[in-house]
Amino acid sequence: MSPKIESFVMHCGEMGSRWGFNRTVGQMYGLILISEEALSAVDIAEALNISRGNVSMGIKELQSWRLVNLQHKAGDRKDYYVPAGSIWEMANRVFEERRKREMDPTLSLLRDNLLDEPANQQEVYAQQKMHEIHDLLETITQWASELQRMSPEKLNTLMKLGSGVGKVLDLKDRILKSGSVK
């Protein structure tokens, strides 16, 4: 690997641990992602200096996240791996998996706790805070679902709007408070 590619692959390892999988799996994904050709388990093991068993377990993890696809080459019995879709699709899959693993269980716990009658003032206060957290997570989940249905072009346009959306909302608030534009 060239120094630039190695730097990217190592960084993906660090990011992988933040996304929800281990460093080696992150490195494997980074390598697969920026490789022009499909990579075999042997290619991955040699490039990253890891065991074939480690590669096999990492590939299974990446497949469970739906981030890599298996590819075959005519006349070759080896399995080869390629990224499963575009960068936008990858981002959507990572977000979706994190939602399933992190937000859904939290929402489920909050719903269960909010169904119970509070036994004392401490629980009344706690439930009020849990309700706020629940509402925030529900809003984030609904918003993210809407974003995931958008085309990459629309998402890109939305992100480029950036702080401009906040300025429009601030203007709207000023108009509603004063009855006119200032």
Automatic annotation (TrEMBL):
<dbReference type="Pfam" id="PF12802">
    <property type="entry name" value="MarR_2"/>
</dbReference>
<dbReference type="InterPro" id="IPR026282">
    <property type="entry name" value="MJ1563"/>
</dbReference>
<dbReference type="InterPro" id="IPR052362">
    <property type="entry name" value="HTH-GbsR_regulator"/>
</dbReference>
<keyword id="KW-0805">Transcription regulation</keyword>
<keyword id="KW-0804">Transcription</keyword>
<dbReference type="GO" id="GO:0003677">
    <property type="term" value="F:DNA binding"/>
</dbReference>
<dbReference type="InterPro" id="IPR011991">
    <property type="entry name" value="ArsR-like_HTH"/>
</dbReference>
<dbReference type="InterPro" id="IPR000835">
    <property type="entry name" value="HTH_MarR-typ"/>
</dbReference>
<dbReference type="InterPro" id="IPR036390">
    <property type="entry name" value="WH_DNA-bd_sf"/>
</dbReference>
<protein>
    <recommendedName>
        <fullName>HTH-type transcriptional regulator</fullName>
    </recommendedName>
</protein>
<dbReference type="InterPro" id="IPR036388">
    <property type="entry name" value="WH-like_DNA-bd_sf"/>
</dbReference>
<keyword id="KW-0238">DNA-binding</keyword>
<dbReference type="GO" id="GO:0003700">
    <property type="term" value="F:DNA-binding transcription factor activity"/>
</dbReference>
<comment type="similarity">
    <text>Belongs to the GbsR family.</text>
</comment>
<feature type="domain" description="HTH marR-type">
    <location>
        <begin position="31"/>
        <end position="78"/>
    </location>
</feature>
